[in-house]
Amino acid sequence: MEHRIKELRAALGLTQEQLSERVGVSRQTIISIENGRYNPSLELAYKIAKVFDRYIEDVFIFDKGSE
């Protein structure tokens, strides 16, 4: 799954730590998501999208081939 987290986070001037605090996870979780090592749950994806005031589909690009 691809995403735009790093790009959107930078546009808001948020650090990984600040984003992690806003969504209630560790900084390591944000790092793992940004590096493609971890796919967030639907609940976490929603929380991240909400921080950016975006729809989940605007933040996460789901690969239809992996369904």
UniProtKB/TrEMBL annotation:
Residues 5-59 form the HTH cro/C1-type domain. Keywords: DNA-binding. InterPro entries: Cro/C1-type_HTH, Lambda_DNA-bd_dom_sf. PROSITE patterns: HTH_CROC1. It comes from the Bacteria. CDD domains: HTH_XRE (cd00093). The keyword Acyltransferase does not apply. Signal peptide: none annotated. Coiled coil: none annotated. One of its GO terms (molecular function) is DNA binding. This is Transcriptional regulator.
